[in-house]
Amino acid sequence: MSSNFATFNGRRRVPPPVNETIKSYAPGSPERASLKARLKTMAAETVDMPLIIGGQEIRTGDTATSVMPHDHKHVLGTYHKATEQHVAQAIAAAAAARAEWSGWAFEDRAAVMLKAAELLTTTWRDTINAATMLGQSKTVFQAEIDAAAELVDFWRFNAHYAQELLDEQPLSDHTMWNQLEYRGLEGFVYAVSPFNFTSIGGNLATAPALMGNTVVWKPASSAMLSAYYLMKLYEAAGMPPGVINFVPGDPAMISKVLLSHRDLAGVHFTGSTEVFNNMWKTIGASMSSYRSYPRIVGETGGKDFIVAHASADVDALAVAMVRGAFEFQGQKCSAASRVYVPKSIWGAVRDRAVAMIGEIKMGDPADFRNFMAAVIDKRAFDKIGGYIEHGRGNAKILAGGKVDGGTGYFISPTLIETTDPGYKLLCEEIFGPVLTAHVYDDAKWEETLTIVDATSPYALTGAVFAQDRRAVVHAMSALRHAAGNFYVNDKPTGAVVGQQPFGGARASGTNDKAGSKLNLTRWVSARTVKENFNPPTDYRYPFMNEE
Ligand code: NAD
Q: Could you give the domains of the chain?
């Protein structure tokens, strides 16, 4: 940093964070009219999305399209794909930006994120929401809780938690002053985001940046429109060029270049377990070539459960099943995808759930009457369809089971019943609107808890429904390691930043809880400074003196 900058003398405090209020978009509301207008203009545009490296827009000419999942012939934009040379250029841009950015006072970096939050809640809200609705096929409510509310919460709460972290200082006395400096990592952070949450794409790149790091961000190919607009929002918020470098393209090639680079300081990943495991293996194999031990943070897959006790409230359980399994087409890492219900209440629960599923409207998210839209792409559509076919052959489909990829990738909300607790659909992550139910004997409550715990390798979210407190206590204990986010009489989705820190263990990730202080600690390398005000001037200690 130039010596012309004077250090700010004053203890600045981050404004106290408050969760962003979710707008209703009810008929007649101003936000509804304004968003509908933006949806219309955006649907009529074809955006050209370049790489953004060191603040420069780069058009490689090697392009792919972004389409609407619910109308897959409708092209929303064209994005450019990086070559190896561009990836190297992004590493250089991150390195060039690091000296200044990491030298800024934390409060100045925080101000960029707080400004981005304020812009997102106001002038940018419609753009980011509309891009998420059209590009990722989210209903207005699903877009609002993700792209607007959660992302704003990440930025406001991260700034607050980072401040708390920086406040943590060691003991000192009149002879010495001990200080902890929370340095950014020495190198770049590689952020790799999934398609399913715009907010995660935002957080994966900005959380390390807030702590003084510079970042190479590879967004998901199927969430490019919202990712690109986020880059534009960062520019508008005053983020210096090179702090976050936007590098879409072939993930295997991009990872090959970044993960083998000497300056890889961290990986901030959210996506499937398999991809994360492979990245970890590559890092392990490259250990001798790094300057520092890279921080590896990954939130991965899930096979999230609801387990009901005979004392469960039937209506609350059925609603949790429907909302938990089918909102955003079941493409939330937290989505309920297996449910265990005792025989005594199953008939009532099933009938209630099947009736609700029968009422669900599915279609274009620009039609606000729809509760569901399309799944993300052809690959997901085929994979989920394959699981439904398996269910048709080996279990009982109680509701849904229809797939139609003609205009958009539509899969109807599907409820399947099986008698086999080890059935494939109860064990594997499907990542679509498929909920598999296992009905157990009421007498086998404790045995069922053991099955829930052992059935899948994941441990992301889970819920127990019971009115009997003893059953809640049992479930909390038996399922202690089965979920990083555990719910009592609530659906297992919808975690809110600052309220339910989110992340899972086992094969669900490193459980560093996105949007919390635990996560931010991964992006700093602390330096301890001891200053002695009165150092000794004689090497001898008193015990050495003559008697
Ligand atoms: P994905 O693993 O297919 O893709 C995630 C990202 O990894 C994308 O950017 C993709 O391009 C990239 N990628 C693919 N191959 C790669 C490679 N060889 N090297 C480096 N990067 C590579 O996941 P997805 O389909 O985008 O998202 C769904 C998955 O994400 C589900 O498994 C879901 O459970 C998980 N998820 C987890 C959480 C959580 O908090 N635990 C949150 C959201 C999503």
A: 34-300+509-530 (3.40.605.10), 304-488 (3.40.309.10)
